[in-house]
Design brief:
Mean pLDDT: 86
Distance between the termini: 24 Å
Radius of gyration: 15 Å
Shape: globular
Number of strands: 0
Order of helices and strands: HHHH
Length: about 120
């Protein structure tokens, strides 16, 4: 059971890395998706610092995840200018509300785990 949070963190950070670097497979369609994916990955990684038992066996996984997140941020910065702000402007309001709600949940998770 102790490995489940670690697997969730790997999935979020790995998903953001694929989204940031891949032009096709799992790629972010627009800047809003890329930004929310990055915020989710960083928030989950930050919260995992408290929730996962980072023993000496798994501390190397922590450093690898931080390195992967840093590489994903570099990929996101490089792709940022090539992405449109929103892929489908007709869904602007719904996507903005969804992104805001997701950001609030992630930031709330970070705030609760930081206390």
């Amino acid at each position: 059971m102790a490995w489940i949070p670690l697997i969730v963190v790997v999935a979020f950070v790995g998903g953001f890395a694929v989204s940031a670097w891949s032009p096709r497979f799992g790629a972010a369609r627009d800047r809003l998706a890329l930004g929310t994916d990055g915020l989710a990955a960083a928030g989950i990684l930050f919260a995992s610092r408290v929730l996962v038992d980072w023993t000496t066996a798994t501390v190397f996984a922590w450093y690898a995840l931080v390195l992967l997140l840093a590489a994903a941020v570099v990929g996101a910065v490089l792709r940022w200018r090539s992405l449109p702000p929103l892929k489908d402007p007709a869904k602007r309001a719904r996507r903005a509300v969804g992104a805001s709600f997701g950001a609030a949940v992630i930031l709330g998770l970070v705030a609760v785990t930081s206390l």
